[in-house]
Amino acid sequence: MGLFTSRKTVFVDSDILVIGGGFGGCGAAYESRYWGRDKKIVIVEKANIERSGAVAQGLYAINCYMGMQWGENQPEDHVRYARNDLMGLVREDLGYDIARHVDATVHMFEEWGLPIMKDEETGRYKREGKWQIMIHGESYKPIIAEAACKAATAVYNRIMVTHLLMDETRPNRVAGAVGFSVRDGNFYVFRSKAVIVTAGGASHIFKPHSVGEGMGRTWYAPWSSASAYALPIQVGAKMTQMENRIVLTRFKDGYGPVGAYFLHLKTYTENAYGDDYEATWYDSIKQLVGDYVDHQPVPTCLRNHAFLEEIKAGRGPIRMVTKEAFKDPHKETVGWENFLGMTIGQAVVWASQNIDPKETNPELIMSEPYVMGSHATCSGAWASGPEDYAPSDYQWGYNRMMTVDGLFGAGDTIGGTAHKFSSGSFTEGRIAGKAAVRYVNDLGSDQPRVDETELDGLKTMVYQPMENYAIGRNEIVAGTVSPSYLLPLHGLQRLEKIMDEYVGGTSTNYLTNEPMLTRGLELLTMLKEDLPHLGADSLHELMRAWELQHRVLTSECVTQHTLFREETRWPGYYYRADHPRLDDTDWHCFTLSRYDAESGEWAMEKAPVHHIID
Ligand SMILES: Cc1cc2nc3c(=O)[nH]c(=O)nc-3n(C[C@H](O)[C@H](O)[C@H](O)COP(=O)(O)OP(=O)(O)OC[C@H]3O[C@@H](n4cnc5c(N)ncnc54)[C@H](O)[C@@H]3O)c2cc1C
Predict the structure, then answer these.
(1) Which of 168, 361, 520, 612 would be a feasible disulfide site paired with 92, CB 3.0-4.6 Å?
(2) Which helix (H) or strand (E) element contains residue 106?
(3) Which ligand 1 atom lies nearest to the CA of residue 162?
(4) What does each C-alpha distance from 450 to 180, 237, 458, 462 come to in angstroms?
(5) From the alpha carbon of 550, which atom of ligand 1 is closest?
(6) C-beta separation of 374 from 409 below 8 A
(7) Mean pLDDT across the stretch 416-436?
(8) Would you place residue 57 in the very low, low, confident or very high pLDDT band (cuts 50, 70, 90)?
């Protein structure tokens, strides 16, 4: 304990605090500086900003680029695309806002040194698909992070934010955040006039396919631990579409992405007997979702559904036909480079399993569910829309401000806007940063204040797992099971099992119903009762303990939303067995939740989906 008796409290004051230095956070810091030359802008990051976030190992494509300079797509087209893929339910105001600005973001990335592949004949960016452009992206994140670091007044790396702080003078107004250094154990108090949460989405809330020593091998980054949702939820921000979890078709075991293969290499799938299976499920899908199955492109969840049904019919595994494409040396190079720039693990898995895609068609699999707001799903916080475009009931102040004053978000944090990806998340960060500067300017002398006594309580709570361990450890002589504390890993496995078995994970074929969800909530409540007894033997484990806290609260929110929406809107992502059909009469709406930390109760409501674009 010697080290931690000298644990210091470090106070950091700022105008704008950015929590999470990923794509959204970097965009937020960059744009805040542009509009707020005199502002103190602080980024706090759990890892190291240079290589932090979901895709810090690099990317091969920027998945959201309109190409307006060449008349390739217009922002309205992207809204239609996202709306179609999400079975009708997106915040069109927010999506349009990103789409109209995203090209400018990508052009800045190129100016900053990001190599973007060009079509030699036309000089245009090389397309992988209608929305994707190809990059040499190993250094994508460091390039973007450099711009953010130059823009920020200070970057605090290796600090995990655990709680937001609320203003003591005015209810429902944010005043900063607290966290701890995972390196020296100091307690950090960030007092700030505005806060932008950009802490990524959530992996490991559902049990992954790989468990035990392989549990880190998931599609989504294992360090994306739901802080983006838990932090706003804790302070009563409204959340939306949290039931809309994502399930992805990926290469088995390595989770290598399939997009470039389908789009660029023109590969296709077949069942174990070499048959094209998707069309055979058309009639049954039509019965479930009606005309949505006729939309082009076919929504992602419906393609997932056909895949899952084919496996259930006993004709799996599903394979991707790579043998033909890999005969072309150019395509073979592209296929391998696609992994080497982004998912080296897939190449290693294939090597270890004797799979040469030129000789063997590799297996595909449906991933476990994840929660995120920037990929093909749109879970997240309910945010105010752009002043010039959002309908009045989507507007209550500043663009991208949540229902808590001064609390903004971007990227995976903000709900209702799927298909933003890296460039769209950065763009949304820029939008939030600009609005946050205006919010701070408008505050004038009416500044938030932090309650000092609240800080003492939070400090005790944050380090409690280390105290629990220090005392409880004396009750055992060996092993890891103690009568007095629960280790974060054990808590995580308990959480994953509950979510998997009751809330629509892989072991029930993504299926759930009202009784299962109700039981899941009971078990989550029991898990929550045990969380004050978490034990941490190190700062690293303390981080794991708080990641678990964030995951559990987010999981509860996901479960509440799944229970509330009495239909199966996205077959292939999850199924409400007791409401197996899409129901546009009652459920063509957003679901909203609000958590009351005092009572532990959740209030659920519907919000209208406004179709702004025809
Ligand atoms: C596997 C995968 C593949 C993808 N492929 C592509 C692609 O090919 N092309 C494309 O354009 N997009 C792709 N994306 C999407 C893109 O990565 C995301 O849209 C983008 O990273 C979201 O930005 P964000 O800021 O919300 O989250 P992130 O970029 O993940 O950043 C979140 C940051 O918050 C930090 N953080 C988390 N919790 C805390 C805390 N409690 N305290 C402090 N800091 C915290 C994290 O360390 C991280 O740095 C992919 C995403 C995934 C998961």
Answers:
(1) 612
(2) helix 92-111
(3) 41
(4) 17, 19, 12, 17
(5) 41
(6) no
(7) 98
(8) confident
